[in-house]
């Protein structure tokens, strides 16, 4: 059983739905996904949404912060499962007691304490600062105790694996599994060949998290314009991202905000783009190597992209050379002339670029492949 417990972003919620739909294709009939959440009750196939039942808001928050075990045991019959993989949401002491009952594996997508410290530093809300400071304090008390007591853990890359191994027993089993997507449900929109005059660049993101590096990107485009660049560069944002969130006004030209798009609407926008943008500021989380959902989605769509970290989906993949452009993982300027040059190159080899990206996504990035990796690792851990 794979278990997610959080009020997740649109991207993460889409991820669990895709994972669940892939389970049948993987032939894993004894694998289920549970999403424990405040309100939604739903069951379809191998996916279960379970709401915190009969709990008024203040009590629900208390249990979420200090007694997740009770919430989990209320919502799930653990007797049906041999092992649990828990996507980390928030540590608490009750999870240590749950580990006495059954093998619990943890899944990490970041250095948890570092990420919370970044969020605390970036928010201007006093209430959010207080809440995040409380969370940081609790994480410092329980996080690495949970790692040491866990049956094993999963990370997105070697860098995270080394970080959590340092805080484990040293012999705790672990597995690196990079992110995936439901390739069959993602249209191969490809990309529009660059015409030499207008460059359209898209960023997909659930929300403007600091490590996305959107200010770095905007600043680079503005510098290119001011320096007399002769190509019209347009930035397109898809997701819960508006002008105010990224320090722009509606009057700023060349910046387009499409909101949350799905299905045909998203396909239509993506098919008109020349390039896509991945995360540009992972250094803020003290990471240079990890995996992001948007990277594998760009691969599935077969649109070349710009990236500023080592994504484990790309590591040592010779077939993907020339399909993406990498910049340093820092706050330096993104050279728009390099993007223009890159766009010329991929446009000259458009069919080859699209074919290689899509083929790799189908063979290595589909959730049917990735969920089998989750399952095999969980089964390899002693119960």
Your description of this structure?
The protein is of the alpha/beta class and 383 residues long. It is built from 13 helices and 16 strands. It has two domains: 2-180 and 367-380, Rossmann fold; 183-365, Glycogen Phosphorylase B (Rossmann fold). The strands form three sheets. Strands 3-4-2-1-5-6-7-8 form an eight-stranded mixed β-sheet, sandwiched between helices. Strand 1 (2-5), helix 1 (10-26) and strand 2 form a beta-alpha-beta unit.
Distance between the termini: 13 Å
Widest sheet: strand order? 3-4-2-1-5-6-7-8
Order of helices and strands: EHEEEHHEHEHHEHEEHEEHEEHEEEHHH
Compute the number of structural domains: 2
The coarse silhouette is globular
Overview features:
Rossmann fold; 2 domains; globular
Set out the fold topology.
Blueprint: E1 2-5, H1 10-26, E2 33-37, E3 42-44, E4 47-51, H2 57-66, H3 68-75, E5 84-87, H4 93-98, E6 104-108, H5 112-122, H6 126-149, E7 152-155, H7 158-166, E8 174-176, E9 198-204, H8 214-226, E10 232-238, E11 255-259, H9 263-270, E12 275-277, E13 289-290, H10 293-301, E14 305-307, E15 310-311, E16 324-326, H11 336-348, H12 350-365, H13 367-380
Parallel strand pairs: 1-2, 1-5, 2-4, 5-6, 6-7, 7-8, 9-10, 9-12, 10-11, 12-14, 13-15, 14-16
Antiparallel strand pairs: 3-4
Please sum up the structure shown:
The chain is of the alpha/beta class and 383 residues long.
